Each structure stands twice: as structure tokens, then as C-alpha cells.
Amino acid sequence: xxxxxxxxxxxxxxxxxxxxxxxxxxxxxxxxxxxxxxxxxxxxxxxxxxxxxxxxxxxxxxxxxxxxxxxxxxxxxxxxxxxxxxxxxxxxxxxxxxxxxxxxxxxxxxxxxxxxxxxxxxxxxxxxxxxxxxxxxxxxxxxxxxxxxxxxxxxxxxxxxxxxxxxxxxxxxxxxxxxxxxxxxxxxxxxxxxxxxxxxxxxxxxxxxxxxxxxxxxxxxxxxxxxxxxxxxx
Length: 234
Known about the structure:
Blueprint: H1 3-31, H2 35-79, H3 87-170, H4 173-185, E1 191-195, E2 198-199, H5 208-216, E3 229-231
Parallel strand pairs: 1-3
Antiparallel strand pairs: 1-2
């Protein structure tokens, strides 16, 4: 196998290794990214805490309304129980009834709004729990898939890196200098296969004289446009 074909094979190894390594980096980032679970947990906690706060307020308001209603009932009994001695006492009881009725009305309005919010957050908590469970299940499945993909990628690298190194060892040192320089400056593509009379990388026609030199196999031939190393297709 001549050096051009060796370099083409080397490029295939390098491209595959680069792709696998890039993917393994993405996998590591994904494995450490619990942001969706964290966000869903935060929402669940916030809704749960708000619901508990509303539950406490609701129970307090219900007790207050019950106490005020009991006080109002007692005032009613006194007012209509035939025990009032004078006009002043009657006026005081009527004022107390009015005050109690007003406080009951205010508390009932607040209680009604609290109950509406409580029902809303109770429904929201069910949705938050459902969402959190779904995200956790999705995360568990993703972790399983990513872990398996990581294992496969690591195994592939353990096979391809030695094969790549063996191929490099077979290449001429000067050829490797050109290859490494072009690979770095040409987006990872140092060797371009001929497609008819076109360079497969830049799609520019290669002069017939260069094609003849390439077929002779005596030396490296570089694309007259992109300067990549040209290689005949098999």
C-alpha cells in the first residue's frame, strides 16, 4: 500500500476517533446534567409548600369563622332572650352583632379566595408530581442509554486508537508532516479522493497532468485548488 492510501486510511481512523471522542464528551456532560430533574423538583417543592401554607390559612380562617359565628349566636340569644334591661344594653348588643357579622363576612370572603387558591394549588401539585415522576423516569432511561453508549464508545476507542497508531507508524515521516498540517488547516480533511476528475473535498476539476502524476504513484499530488493530498478511488 502506498503512502497516499495509508494516509487515507489514517484519516478514516482519525475522523472516527475524533467523532467518538466528541460524542463521549457530550455524553459526560449529559450524564452530569440533572437540570430538568432539579427544575421539576424545585417546582414540586414550591407548589407543595404553597399548598401547605394555604391549608394552614384555610384551617385558621375556618376556626375564626366558626368562633365568630358562635359569638354571634350567643349575642343573638342575649338579644332575643328577654334579658335586656335597658336601651343602652340593647344598643351595645346590636353594635356587637353588626361588628361580628362584618368580621364574619370579611373572613368568609378571604376563606373563599383561600379555598379557590387551595383547590388550584392542589391540582397543580398533582400535575407537579406527575411531571416530576415522568422526568425522573425519562432521566433514568437516558442514563441507562448514555451509559451503554459510553461503554460502546470507549470500547471502540480502545480498538481504533492502536489501529490508528499502527497505521501512522507505517507512514513516511515527511508525509505525516504534510498530513498533520493539512488536517489541522483543512477542517480535519487532509486527503481527498478523486471523483471522476474532481477533488471530492473542494469539487474543483483537477488538471489532467496532475491526474497522470497521481496515477503514476511516484509522488504525492496536491489539489491545485484546496491543496489537499489527492488519492485515487479504489
